[in-house]
Amino acid sequence: xxxxxxxxxxxxxxxxxxxxxxxxxxxxxxxxxxxxxxxxxxxxxxxxxxxxxxxxxxxxxxxxxxxxxxxxxxxxxxxxxxxxxxxxxxxxxxxxxxxxxxxxxxxxxxxxxxxxxxxxxxxxxxxxxxxxxxxxxxxxxxxxxxxxxxxxxxxxxxxxxxxxxxxxxxxxxxxxxxxxxxxxxxxxxxxxxxxxxxxxxxxxxxxxxxxxxxxxxxxxxxxxxxxxxxxxxxxxxxxxxxxxxxxxxxxxxxxxxxxxxxxxxxxxxxxxxxxxxx
Length: 278
Hints:
mainly alpha; 2 domains; 3-stranded mixed sheet; two-stranded antiparallel ribbon; 5 strands; globular
């Protein structure tokens, strides 16, 4: 009897906490089991550990400030400009970018070395902002890790063994994958954001082409954690032809990117992930 009573209580708690939210990218109502406050709690709680695992932030304030400036430009025109976004650059040499719930967005020094223009950077950051807006990362975390586990690790990080658990969970967060539809939605919304922020939309196609070329040499982390649809470049080009073929001349920013990022990275050499827990 007590076992059945416990089950009934658990099911009742789940029912009471189940809610729905509108996905701003699709306009569709989706099941949502957690609050915006939990988004922020998870993002803020795991950001320091993830930064640590990826070699820490770059030390050049001008470089990090430049990336934040570009990120804030695309965030301001997103569906959720009210979120307090934090854009950071970590020193790891892997080619990747990722978002945590609550507005924490990171790019690695490794991917920055392969980009050539401010518009390409804007495309990457806009894509990640779209994941934040849609709460895709929170959904992936709750699906693959479990929201109660994540919250518990944050709350108990100062307890014995808490730091180790948080480090292990941070490693799992870095390997989370989105669905193909999540990626398509983020691509489309990200392109809209970058254009509204004043950047040339073809830059994101150039970035995808670069990533595919790099993939031929060695596996690219961005294409591992962000499933790469076979027709990704094709549908992005179609989107440009249908929606942005007649737009005025927009910013590319090659010189700005070279002076603010590429030249600065020479002094901040990316680190590998040899110190990450298995």
